[in-house]
User: Fold this.
Amino acid sequence: MKVTVFGTGYVGLVQGAVLADIGHQVLCVDVDESKVAALQAGRIPIHEPGLDTLVIHNQRLGRLQFTTNAADGVAHSELIFLAVGTPPDEDGSADLQYVLAVAKTIAQHMNGPRIVINKSTVPVGTADTVAAVMAQGLAERGVQHRFDVVSNPEFLKEGAAVADCQRPDRIIIGTDNPASEAKLRELYAPFNRNHDKIVVMDVKSAELTKYAANAMLATKISFMNEIANLAERLGADVEAVRRGIGSDPRIGYHFIYPGAGYGGSCFPKDVKALIHTAKQVDFEPLLLNAVEERNQAQRNVLFERISAFYQGKLRGKTVAVWGLAFKPNTDDMREAPSRNLMEALWAAGATVQAYDPVAMQEAQRIYGERPDLKLVESPLAAVQGAECLAIVTEWQIFRAPDFELLAQTLSDRVIFDGRNLFDPALPASHGLGYVSIGRPAIE
Ligand code: NAD
Assistant:
């Protein structure tokens, strides 16, 4: 089948490449000229395991192409995916300007029936808004074409996006139109052979399903962070508690890790957007408010520990930071807890020496050159000349450090671990202080 994808970010590029890989003819459209030029030249602008080989392979076979020409994109196929960003607006609502701009563009160029398949995370009711914008665009041209707007939210995880797209847990299709449902079933059939993963529902429920999924995951994290704070004050060990509750299959081990707060481009913005949506219909979302509030507080916890250790006197200190990306296996630093930490350290007069396996360029892009940020090429280089170490992202490479060397290198011999990577006895046995989340600190 022929498919067009608008937006070549984490969602659109992965979706386009995965659809091309099963044999569909995919044309990806983006307004970002430099991104499209890079993709046309076989350079992948984001870090996502397995993505580069998938893109290059399918490009060579002619099944995956990139363009900035929206008219070509609209002409290419009856099936048009929307995978553009929906960043948070100032009031927390989802900013729909990119989604609606694409809707307008499609209406401007379509010369036959189209099915618009929305993969972007959008508030309930957006499919109707997209349809209204398209209807208006067609009316302005004085033409009539059949179209349908389907909600098909995306559930991929950054860092495992290719695998998630190739083997989705479920495929949500929000539509009341049997013809659109049939087309999407045909498109997704190769992903649906093992067992039926397709869940068809009305459009609004599909739109809400995406927010409900992210809000549930964010709730699990904030819940565990709440317990971690309690554990600290009660002298308990949250890691023992985690294992204790995870063993109950009704709770499970996934997503109950305490830490430095959730970040990334989805959870923070989607929880805020759902809160906004609730308020618009005069509903006070007590639980979601608390999830968000706990997370805001949690993102400062690591800095608070460091500041407490130095009794607020951080001026002139050098702090090594391991991990900049909001989670491992991605270069994405949107709303990353590392940013809260570094910005708080800078405000307190400290210097940061940071290392991340793939997010260094992104950090450079965000912060540019500044005297209090040194981006270095290895975990070891980060700790050299530093007083202490803060661990923010649980990359594999940080999981088994040479504690003896750290003890010799860090002048204040202390690790602040925002991810609870180690058994506290281990750094302690090398004479290192160890301050983690929800466990008794060893100073
Ligand atoms: P992104 O910012 O990485 O990419 C968006 C892309 O859209 C950019 O390349 C941008 O240039 C392009 N774009 C903007 N306006 C355009 C236009 N008019 N025409 C064509 N391209 C245009 O965003 P993302 O992380 O891929 O997220 C996209 C959507 O998917 C969001 O709504 C997000 O909430 C949702 N989502 C993201 C993830 C994730 O893990 N990143 C997972 C599930 C759902």
